[in-house]
Write a structure and sequence with these properties.
The protein is of the alpha+beta class. It is built from 9 helices and 9 strands. Strands 1, 2, 3, 4, 5 and 6 form a 6-stranded antiparallel β-sheet that branches. A hairpin with a 2-residue loop joins strand 8 and strand 9. Helix 3 packs across helix 4. The longest helix has 26 residues. It is globular. The relative contact order is 0.13.
């Protein structure tokens, strides 16, 4: 019989539920399921440059990003870092650790001060053992989540770097008219990794956007001069 962990404060429970509801992985689960999963979760506030785990570790569960950015990467034999993906608010990672307690093939480092949920493997496994219907709904949700990631990967392969960068910027613009300021990672290679390119190509594309008058750059921010016009322009034809 599953025994929930010691009760958290009401305020913390509400924070956990809010993060779960905003996470794509759990977006189609009902309140009862979310409350059950919240019993297996704990909030962690983690400063930047902190490692959540290293390759070879066995994390205690999987993670949900409530705020901040997490760089999941691998190191080659010479210590060079290859970014697998940067996870941000509303995304989850490490789901494989639910079924596999073996060593992680990757490392995870906080890139900007983060609020995370750790969904504990042991507690969730105990809950699923006594309430198997949760497992089926969670598997269905994870399947839809995986399908969307596969679709996104296919989309990346068929679009240019300019198109991917524009989409990344527009996704972070507000719905209001007028210029929109978008914060970008201080380490440009992280943004390059997010849109599936290399820093040199990213720099050339940003220069092209700036020369066309679509964006302004200053420090770690980009101003999209007119998001509505930027969304409509034939970006490839205008670049030639």
């Amino acid at each position: 019989m599953f025994k929930p962990p010691p009760a958290s404060s009401q305020a913390e429970n509400l924070r956990i539920l809010g993060i779960l509801r905003a996470t794509r992985l759990f977006s189609e689960l009902g309140d009862v399921d979310l409350r059950n999963i919240s019993l297996c979760s704990e909030i962690r506030s983690v400063p930047k440059r902190t490692y959540l785990f290293h390759a070879g570790d066995s994390p205690a569960g999987f993670f949900v990003v409530g705020k901040g950015a997490v760089n999941v990467h691998r190191l080659d034999e010479e210590g060079r870092e290859t970014v697998i993906r940067v996870f941000r608010e509303g995304e989850s990672f490490g789901e494989l650790f639910l079924a596999d307690a073996g060593p992680s093939p990757v490392s995870a480092r906080i890139e900007s001060t983060a609020t995370l949920l750790l969904v504990r493997r042991s507690d969730l496994s105990n809950m699923i053992a006594s309430r198997p219907e949760i497992a089926m709904r969670l598997l269905a949700s994870m399947s839809r989540h995986l399908r969307s990631l596969v679709d996104k990967l296919g989309s990346l392969q068929h679009r240019t770097v300019s198109e991917r960068l524009r989409e990344w910027l527009l996704a972070r613009c507000s719905d209001e008219d007028g210029p929109a300021v978008v914060a970008i990672p201080p380490r440009k290679y992280l943004l390059a990794a997010e849109i599936g390119t290399v820093p040199e190509t990213l720099s050339r594309t940003l220069t092209k956007f700036r020369e066309r008058g679509w964006i302004l750059t200053e420090g770690n921010s980009i101003t999209v001069v007119s998001p509505a016009n930027f969304a409509e322009v034939d970006i490839e034809a205008a670049s030639n």
